[in-house]
Amino acid sequence: MLELYQWELSQYSEKVRLILDYKGLDYRKIEVTPGIGQVELFRLTGQRQVPVLKDRNKYIADSTAIAKYLDLQYPERPLLPQDPKKRGVTLLLEEWADESIGLKGRKALFSAISQDQNFRKSLLPTSVPDVLKSLVEGVPSDLLTVLGFGVGYSPDVIKSAIADLKQDLDALTLLLADSPYLTGDEPTLADLTVAGLSILLKFPSGPYLDLPASIRGKGVPIFAENPDYEPFFAWRDRLYAQFRKPLIMTTPPSGSAPTSIQID
What we know:
With about 260 residues, the chain is an alpha+beta fold.
């Protein structure tokens, strides 16, 4: 079975999960704990960032490289169209989405969690103990603003990212106005990339991520609650309903502690 070294809230990991589901490939998720888990991942693969896909004895890093590898090794349900023009547009849209929605979406989400303690707490995986959730919820907004400066997320940078994302969503909504998918009548890598990377703007309404049910369909208010973008997110959720496999949730026995998957 394929193994995906990932982080549940990584939108690039979600891009790969959506691609794997679209192709009908079974895989096992291996959650990489930030910090210690990344050190172990580097020991195994030479790569600290997720996602990393393991296929037998081969490790593939980077979501774009993983997509190309899967299309070559598992050609059923191809990601790239045969038509040269559509193929070129697909590759351009995939690269653009990685650099725009992917990177700027993180900044928009950071702004939202800095301002809303409940939202911040809700983003933690369901397996996180309540005591840790309470600690995260109690972090002062002013401290998060200072931390944001430390990683390059100043108010001006966030404001610029949000303005760019508004333009991006406007453009995507226009592209989808008279077409079921971004490049025509069939889904491609462009659709799966845009859909997967958009989760930080508004989470899918279905049970696809290991997050509390209360946060499904919610997200960065300026996008998630804006009726102008409802057509885009409705398209995204339809694509998820078509191709993304929902989580199979199991209830642990009474009194047992949550478990996490560790890197072997």
